[in-house]
Write a structure and sequence with these properties.
The protein is of the alpha/beta class. The chain is about 30% helix and about 25% strand. Helix 10 runs antiparallel to helix 11 and helix 11 runs antiparallel to helix 13. Pfam families: FAD_binding_3 (PF01494).
Length: about 475
């Protein structure tokens, strides 16, 4: 394939969340041929992240280093990003007056925790925007705010190749064009809904159009450590990497973020009687502290002290997606939560989107992908993206559901027990040894998937392995 002088492959990214921004940064980092133009479209008038803590496992950290974020991100963590064995969580059974320690879970590299807004800010700072003179611009990049996508169409063949093949239609904004459309617009993705309804077997994907409620709510808050210190000067959470408080159908985690200034608290409640039902009302809303305290009445005093420091908790209805067997077709690809929204129990949602971005950026910037790439070549690229990312994401979605059941002691072998009951210690150990085993992937090497993607691309183009 030969490059068209002065022409760039135009990639439209719909959604400026963690996954979409990671794709833009990864493309710029890997685009050594300066052949890609990136347009990012965000529906909101300004960039802002809701939520608080994000887990960055060693696997994800490896990608951040590869795309040039290591130096900027490292100072934001509470320990050096290396593979030394570190505690991820101390597990405590807490659905009783006198809680107790079950075990500690340690893994190579531990878990790096960061405020979601800090991560987003770092990603934005590394976009190759014209205003970012300190960022090396391999690719060109433009960020469009207040652009809400409502539809996309394809140009008639009579105007190709003079015009870009995909037309993006926005509410109250002029239409724009691109070569490839990437939907990174989250769990309520407009791109996913449009994409699935246009597949040849669209009726098969009816249940995948909208998210499904998991019969679980999560109460979230940040608390200042100094507030907790005044209430309980020797509280375990003040100096511990992470604590998980567990009980039947309920669990909570507490860990430091923002340089140790805050504790991120997430407390979940699963209502088995509402499985298979839809959530009514807004997905997240501010609730009273009384509501939160009432949900955990009778729990361990140490955990109650954390809750007493929460002033304005928010309640989130946790949703995920029915698994998709394809993330891409023709010139449209899905990324992150738009493709595989998952529950938070593996701390893997953001990381999975970042892996999507890394694989896709690798394929788009490879020397075999030209600015004039034919539909045949793009079809091969899409097949490879699906081959690498669909099974990996599906396995993670399934694993995170399993992990959530283990955290909340909602497994068949414990069905005889209810909240607050004494559970034999050896049975608790069995559960949380399984939890530890389910985190074995966190320090694995993402480069294996990248190498596989490159080899498949070379093979599909008749190139020998480099």
């Amino acid at each position: 394939m030969t490059e068209i002088q002065g022409e760039r492959l135009k990639i439209a990214i719909v959604g400026a969340g963690i996954a979409g921004l990671s794709l833009a940064v990864a493309i710029n980092a890997l685009d050594q041929d300066h052949k890609i133009a990136i347009d990012i479209y965000e529906s909101t008038p300004e960039l802002s992240e809701i939520g608080a803590g994000v887990n960055v496992w060693p696997r994800t950290w490896c990608i951040f280093e590869k795309i040039g974020l290591g130096e900027s991100l490292a100072p934001l963590f509470d320990h050096p990003p290396n593979l030394e064995p570190r505690v991820i969580y101390e597990i405590r059974k807490a659905d009783q007056k006198d809680g107790f320690r079950v075990m500690e879970i340690s893994k190579n590299g531990g878990g790096l925790r960061i405020h979601r807004a800090d991560l987003q800010r770092c990603l934005v700072d590394h976009l190759p925007l014209p205003s970012h003179s300190g960022t090396k611009a391999n690719s060109s990049c433009t960020l469009y705010l207040s652009h809400r996508l409502v539809d996309y169409t394809y140009q008639p063949s009579s105007v190709l190749p003079a015009k870009k093949p995909v037309v993006l239609h926005f509410a109250d904004k002029p239409s724009r064009t691109c070569d490839i459309l990437v939907g990174a617009d989250g769990i309520k993705s407009t791109v996913r809904q449009l994409f699935l309804t246009r597949l040849p077997n669209a009726p098969d994907y009816q249940k995948c159009l909208s998210p499904r409620w998991s019969a679980t709510v999560a109460y979230r808050s940040l608390i200042e450590k100094e507030m907790l210190r005044r209430l309980s000067p020797n509280h375990r959470a003040l100096d511990h990497p992470g604590i998980m408080y567990v009980g039947r159908y309920k669990h909570a985690v507490a860990y430091s973020i923002s340089g140790g200034r805050y504790l991120n608290i997430v407390a979940t409640i699963h209502d088995k009687s509402r499985e298979g039902t839809a959530w009514e009302g807004p997905w997240n809303s501010e609730v009273s502290r009384h509501e939160l305290l009432d949900q955990f009445r009778g729990w361990d005093e140490e955990f109650q002290q954390l809750l007493q420091c929460i002033e304005r908790p928010t309640r989130w209805a946790l949703h995920d997606m029915h698994p998709l067997d394809t993330f891409a077709s023709q010139r449209v690809l899905l990324l992150g939560d738009a493709a595989h929204a998952m529950l938070p129990y593996q701390g893997a949602g953001a990381g999975a989107g970042i892996e999507d971005a890394y694989i896709l950026a690798t394929l788009l910037t490879h020397r075999l992908t030209s600015t004039s790439s034919s539909p045949d070549h793009l079809s091969k690229l899409i097949d490879i993206y699906n081959c690498i990312r669909v099974p990996s994401a599906a396995a993670m979605v399934k694993s995170t559901v399993t992990q959530g059941a283990l955290y909340t002691l909602a497994v068949p072998e414990l069905d005889e027990y209810k909240e607050g009951d004494h559970i034999p210690f050896d049975r608790l150990l069995d559960v949380f040894h399984t939890v530890a085993d389910n985190w074995s992937w966190t320090s694995s090497d993402p480069e294996e998937d990248r190498r596989t993607a490159v080899e498949l691309l070379q093979r599909s183009c008749g190139q020998a392995r480099l």
